[in-house]
Amino acid sequence: MVASSARQNKNENETGPHMDRISIVGGRRLRGTIPISGAKNATLPLMIASLLTADRLTLKNVPNLADVNMLARILRNHGVDLTIDGKRADPSPHLGETFHLSARDIVDTAAPYELVSRMRASFWVLGPLVARCGVARVSMPGGCAIGTRPVDLHLMGLKALGAEIDIDGGYVVAKAPKGLKGTRVVFPKVSVGATHAILMASTLAKGETVIENAAREPEIGDVAECLIKMGAKIEGVGTSTLRIAGTGRLEGAVHTVLPDRIETGTYAFAVAAAGGDVELKGARRALLETAFDALERTGVGIADTPAGVRVTRNGGPLEPITIETQPYPGFPTDLQAQLMALMTKAKGTSVIRETIFENRFMHVQELARLGADIQLQGDTATVKGVKTLRGAQVMATDLRASVSLVIAGLMAEGQTTINRVYHLDRGFERLEQKLSRCGAEIERLVSG
Ligand code: EPU
User: How far apart are the C-alpha atoms of 410 and 413, rounded to whole Å?
Assistant: First the structure.
């Protein structure tokens, strides 16, 4: 086991707004294997779950990402002791690092603006902290600028569990000196974050909590499985009704993070875009049936293999598609930009409706720089397939938008340079290596 200070210092630099760029020369087919990392959106709440116990929580298959490192800083600030084992060698290169988190002594129940404003999921510490310590003070969140992204559902759930909530100077202050009390929480809208937060908080509440209209994303199931290993009593995992029998205390556990379905889908779209034959090692088709179905409808081959999923496209045309984003098991909003990039060269007109976030179209104007023909009206993008995209300078604006530009760059003639790739580093581990090992002409141009 290694102490994490060197890694931490390195990553403090990595999470700064540095100006690396990525250069891609399009037109190369992809062949080989891409290892799929552990899911970012499961790792973050799993790390936060460590706040619920004084014992050690061990997480395996943790991806090395800027968001994970940022959350590690936030948790250390609360007093969580975090040590890291190194990445395992082949033959399982997709297995990530192992984190050991121990929140024996929570020394600070406040999460400051400087840290929380950089990543929305860090707001999710509010529920576990108030559940365990009876008080928490957490800055209102930041994160990718893809919509207004309020936190009303989080606050509604915590109030229902008996917490007193105040807003003070941009901070949410939650108090429950006598502990939280189980209750029925009916979410008026499906929210991944609010489901995580109330699920975690209710494990330490007195009595039973029922969460209705809970999000069903596989990452919530993964967190629930981990909480069950920690001693929580949860029924209905994978459904929209979760029943939690509160226990006064949770214990330590060992849990392996599930594979990243958004990374899986992204590389599947990349292979579809560039053409070729790639095995996504460690991928699980069952985690993203809707996205794979959509790809099959466009004419891309998808097949299960013993080690993952194989994606093939051998020169045939891409059929256009009509789709809208929906909570799981619908088509994920986190793959909307990637799908749109692919459809810019389809043989006809695609219609893509975004129903989750109201401002998640910032990739449209960047794709237009490459020659894409996209009309936006309200929540709907109409994408007319063009024969040719041409490389250009483009700007990464948020995590998933950035990677859609990589996909477009793989299809474009000539060179595409993507600026501000720090957005990409929040959620994609070793993206350039994973693609270049399969034959893509892609490199990082390090600034300074
Ligand atoms: N919403 C509210 N009130 C709330 C919370 C959410 O109105 O209190 C709204 C949001 O504004 C949005 C909708 O509900 O319109 C859904 O938001 P949700 O809470 O489900 O999103 P989130 O928890 O903030 C997570 C992922 C996102 C992913 C969404 C939707 C993590 C760390 N983040 O965000 O992932 O897009 O669910 O699936 O799990 C990404 O990884 O790039 C990313 C943005």
Answer: 8
Rounded Cα distance between 201 and 111, Å, is: 17
pTM value is 0.94
| Ligand 1 binding pocket includes 102 (Cβ within 6 Å) | no
- Annotated active-site positions, please? 144
Q: Which atom of ligand 1 is nearest to the CA of 332?
A: 38
**Ligand 1 centre from 13 Cα, in Å?**
27
Distance (Å) from CA 356 to ligand 1 centroid: 8
The Cα 364–Cα 341 span in angstroms is 9
**Position 86 pLDDT exceeds 70:** no
- Cα distance between residue 75 and residue 103, in whole Å: 9
The verdict on the CB of residue 191 being under 6 Å from ligand 1 is yes
CB 283 within 8 A of CB 266: no
Q: What region does 209 belong to: left with phi over 0, alpha with psi -120 to 50, or beta?
A: beta
Quickly count: other Cβ atoms within 10 Å of residue 378's Cβ: 8
Rounded distance, CA 367 to CA 343, Å? 11
Check: CB of residue 46 under 8 Å from CB of residue 21: no
Q: Which atom of ligand 1 is nearest to the CA of 399?
A: 42
- According to DSSP, residue 150 is labeled -
Q: Give the position of tokens 């060269």.
A: 345
Question: Closest by alpha carbon to 241, among 212, 264, 217?
Answer: 212
Convert the pLDDT of each residue in 230-275 to its tens digit.
999 999 999 999 999 999 899 999 999 999 999 999 999 999 999 9
CB neighbour list of residue 149: distance below 8 Å, 6 or more residues apart: 120, 141, 143, 357
